[in-house]
């Protein structure tokens, strides 16, 4: 007797065979239909041509007069009744849809980096020779809840965000051989990311260059916020740059649409630690575009010095670094911060001496306007941070030195274009589902022992 | 696949004439009217499920548009291959997932199980003999159903080229009514309600109105028709041109919207107490049955 399993295999093979045949039949049928239609069209055209030819040979004496009359008619109608003229109506070019292509249409060239939600490589489209970046989506948890919600949001937000300074999503393609588990995003390729670029630079960007970069970043963030998209992972390694001095925001793995008022169940496990705002660290579940503005402030500081501004080792350390730089929150500065989930364990020093912001002294070469901008972006109170539109209108961008033209930017050798890049230890974006770990962070140790520290004789050197 | 740019809240991807002329199901031998019936039933199922799941209507509408797009064109899904029921539940699951109202697979599958048992559906609240314990999904069948749900979701995404953008006419409709100063009228509320009703009904249209017309056109036609019915006077001039709709298209849309009631009644008479086939096997046997009937005549 044949075993049941062998039977099954055969069945599956048969099934596959049948399916294949059917697919082919279907394709052939569609093709046939199309051909028949084309032939019909061609026939009609020919007929028309023949008729036209016959007419032109037969009735050559008649036609010119007819034509003349027609044009005269038109001339008179346009003059007397302009009301009946068709009014111009707005029409959109409606796109259509079709099945996703396969990644086999692309030839992989080299690996670029691993983002928070996928692996990125440089590739060439075989048909056109165009260089693109291909990102493989991480499909973790897809056996439980299907296509990852983060991947879905990344595709939807990127599709909704076509902007000069946002990386362009060209298409989404399937894995090799119809492997359904693999999904790839095909995006435009840019030579650099700001993080790797700055690591190799001897000196930080010039003030005029920082302004141009900040204006570009600000315009992209304004565009996103206008469309109700929160990026939630702005950082220098997610900002790509080409050799023409243009930057583009990439990696929308954390992005989502939000409304006003914002949904009340947002995860606080967003934004890479060094760029994460204090309200997120304190565990808020309702936040808005101001979390992106905090990250923008961190990026501003990083562009000025080429070093990340607040390099905390963990949530507790990050928050203490923030308080060291921006001062200690009080009820006046930030009403209601005490009510945030993780603020309960927070014990702040009583001394008023330590409450002020030291941003000014950290950036001695920044102008007053620049300092003011950085200080408002890094406001502890999210409501005090400027919107992206306010950022763009800030006087800092209108004072000398003026923003440098992108055409005047220096060019750099591209690491992504040629070789494997050296990765430095920067923390990754938080992983979804690890929310529990954030639940009971104990901030009580931050300023512990501060009161017992030796206090100097009251002499302070202050840079203004 | 061209991307949606700029005014994404006004623009939907539309079906091409080629896609409308050749559906995968018809190539597989499913008669056009059976295809319409199955699609109609599937859409009703999504609408009913989202009412039971207390989802906002815009999610239901988005899911219905995604569901309808799936079956269009020679490269779309075929009723002989895919279970319409599974595509319906996966469309709703896929739409709700990234929204502010995600639905768990278990809740969704149980709801669809109930609705499938309670068919033929006349209204969500209509009485039926389905007992709660009939809809209970055992652990085994739940896992199997979830697997199918996930597989179908992936297939929908691949078939649509991961293009899940749906622009809806509802807010535009309110906007246009405001622009027409219609809210000053004492019957304004009835007018808005009626216009919304037409927009919701158009989701069920066998003419695939949401796949062939942009939201502004749908909103304008719904207002026109509602105003006629509620007898609210709108500007005498050709006000629809302000919303970029010409007379001919307006006429077509109004006729299409008005024909919905007749279509629904015909369907009800046609199927009576029978259930419209919602799985590939059922559709296949219905096709066979019709073939035999035709041969017998």
Q: Quick recap of the structure?
A:
The complex is a heterodimer of chains A (464) and B (297). Chain A has 464 residues and is of the alpha+beta class. Chain A has helices at residues 4-58, 63-80, 142-145, 149-160, 194-200, 207-226, 278-281, 290-305, 315-326, 359-362, 368-377, 388-392, 415-418, 435-439, and strands at 106-115, 118-125, 131-137, 169-174, 183-188, 192-193, 229-230, 239-241, 247-249, 256-257.
Mean pLDDT of chain B: 89
Overall form of chain B:
globular
Percentage of helical residues of chain B?
A: 55-70%
- Helix and strand succession of chain B? HHHHHHHHHHHHH
The CATH homology group name of the domain at 192-408 in chain A: Transferase(Phosphotransferase) domain 1
Helix content of chain A: 25-40%
Description of the structure:
- The complex is a heterodimer of chains A (464) and B (297).
- With 464 residues, chain A is an alpha+beta fold.
- Chain A has helices at 4-58, 63-80, 142-145, 149-160, 194-200, 207-226, 278-281, 290-305, 315-326, 359-362, 368-377, 388-392, 415-418, 435-439; strands at 106-115, 118-125, 131-137, 169-174, 183-188, 192-193, 229-230, 239-241, 247-249, 256-257.
- In chain A, helix 6 packs antiparallel against helix 8 (290-305) and helix 8 (290-305) packs across helix 11 (368-377).
- The longest helix of chain A is centred in the first third of the chain and has 55 residues, at 4-58.
- The model of chain A is unreliable at 55-82 (pLDDT under 50).
- Chain B is built from 13 helices and no strands.
- Chain B folds into 2 domains: 26-165, Orthogonal Bundle (Cyclin A, domain 1); 170-258, Orthogonal Bundle (Cyclin A, domain 1).
- With 297 residues, chain B is mostly helical.
- In chain B, 60% of the residues lie in helices and 0% in strands.
- Chains A and B meet through helix 1, helix 3, helix 4, strand 4 and strand 10 of A and helix 1 and helix 7 of B.
